[in-house]
Write a structure and sequence with these properties.
Elements (H helix, E strand, L loop, with lengths): L1 H21 L3 H13 L4 H8 L3 H13 L3 E4 L6 E4 L5 H7 L12
Antiparallel strand pairs: 1-2
Helix pairs in contact: 1-2, 1-5, 3-4
């Protein structure tokens, strides 16, 4: 569990460091982080995570799509967003980092 939390924190910090170069807000970083960690994000998840209304979440996701950081998949109720062509590769690589569990009781 600790390794997953560390990996998530590393992704968040990398996104925060790149925020200015991508021109995104901290609120939009939440959506990018969700995509990195889970593989996709829905508008409703952005609303709940940031405590914003539907219009704000829609605008944020549209802005991220327009810049190429996210790609929209599907239509209307089934729409979700995945990593786009301009998604930061270092963040995606960090989120996919594997960890080998070792037996602490092995001699």
């Amino acid at each position: 569990m600790r390794r997953r939390v560390d990996r998530s924190g590393d992704c968040w910090m990398q996104l925060m460091e790149a925020a200015d170069s991508f021109g995104v807000t901290e609120r939009q970083i939440t959506a990018l982080h969700e995509v990195a960690m889970v593989g996709r994000v829905r508008r409703s998840r952005c609303e709940k995570a940031e405590g914003i209304n539907t219009q704000q979440a829609t605008r944020d996701l549209q802005a991220l799509t327009k810049t190429g950081l996210l790609t929209a998949v599907g239509q209307t109720k089934g729409r979700h967003y995945v990593a786009g062509p301009r998604s930061p590769e270092n963040v995606l690589a960090t989120s996919q980092r594997t960890h080998t569990i070792t037996n602490p009781y092995a001699s």
